[in-house]
Amino acid sequence: MTRPTVLICCDFFAPGFKAGGPVQSLGRLVARLGDRFRFRVVTRDRDLGDTRPYPSIVRNRWIAGDGAEVFYASPRRMFGHLLGIVRGTSHDLLYLNSCFSPWFSIAPLLVRRSLRSRSPVILAPRGELQTGALAIHSAKKRAYLLSARSAGWLRDITWHATTSAEERDVQREFGPVPVFVAPNLGPSPVNSIAPLAKRAGELKILFLGRVAAIKNLLGAIEVLRGLEGRITCSIVGPREDLAYSQRCEAAIATLPANVVVQWCGAVEHTQIPAAIDAHHVMFLPTCGESYGHAIAEALCRGRPVVISDKTPWRDLAPHDAGWDVPLEDAASYRDALSQLVRADEVGYRRFTRGALAYAGRAIDDAVSVELHAHHFRRLIEARV
To answer: What is the pTM (predicted TM-score) of this model?
Structure first.
């Protein structure tokens, strides 16, 4: 039986890793559904923030990748590449991975409308329509959304939300449009938790994410200022916003002597498990996540998390898996981290077991795989 072809347009794909969760979302989607659909992916030839292409790939032609055929487009003729691919590559479904990407969402939509294409389109906003995300560079985003609604660029598409909250975000902005909900495909919980010594009065904190306003590193630094004990915090992630990064550096320079912060930079995804295992807790007071791959990975490795209430990972405290705290409530963040500072080996072990058990209950990839497959086929068959 011939597999239907899904054409994915996305800014970043493997071997890229600096863009974080969306790259993992697509990689797992392709890997888990590749036996049912033929995936073809068009993406940039370089990672987030890089000025040079990936050294190990062939550009501007279709090549076999991990579960998909991939076209790594060079920036010089980007629109020409996209025009030729959307127009000339036979596909049963077009999947877009952003609302606001000029090249990999807006351009394909415009090409499709100019061709009067009948191929169904799925657009996954990946948290971009959350109120916290829209508040960043809001004037530009609001202007685009107004133009898109007025011009009908987003007419006749189906939205992919990863949570019911994201479904509400989409319909708040666009009204009663068609949306299907299918959770992201997450990591698998470990069989045994990596041991890490824990003494009362110390805490090793991991901030794992892009250095950009949406991840709220500046807010995290201000919380650290009020902690007692011997505190170390590792910042792992690319500096996406240089001006914001400089503000964070200035704030770090004024922290008290008991708080030591280490800038670790971006690491490949294969190095993330070791980074998680080397710390007692992940601290991510993010302004908004449609999923939060870093959070899922920490929980799956038996590490508690202290996060904002702007993610799908909720009700952590009753399960000893961590705390989900109102975004602006610095005092509650500090109280949560202070509980971990005070914990000894035995007390801390309660949180590691709680985190792993929570992950085992919350992540069900088998259901999500079937939801993705069902909605993909439903849209393809409806066209026929």
So the answer is: 0.88
Residue 53 contacts residue 45 (beta carbons within 8 Å) = yes
Maximum separation of any 2 CA atoms in the chain, in Å: 66
Which class is domain 202-362? Answer: alpha beta
Q: What is the pLDDT of residues 301-313, one digit of tens each?
A: 999 999 999 999 9
Q: Is 118 strand, coil or helix?
A: coil
Number of CB atoms found within 10 A of residue 381's CB: 11
Q: Kindly indicate whether the domain formed by 5-185+364-383 is annotated with CATH number 3.40.50.2000.
A: yes
Peptide bond into 120 cis (omega under 30): no
Bridge partners of 7, per DSSP, are 40, 94
106 DSSP assignment: I
DSSP H helices in 63-216 = 78-88, 107-115, 131-134, 138-151, 164-174
* DSSP characters over 302-348: T--EEEESSSS----GGGTSEEEE-TT-HHHHHHHHHHHHH--HHHH
Pairing state between β 62-64 and 69-73: antiparallel
Q: Where exactly does CATH 3.40.50.2000 map onto the chain?
A: 5-185+364-383, 202-362
Count of beta carbons in the 10 Å neighbourhood of residue 377: 15
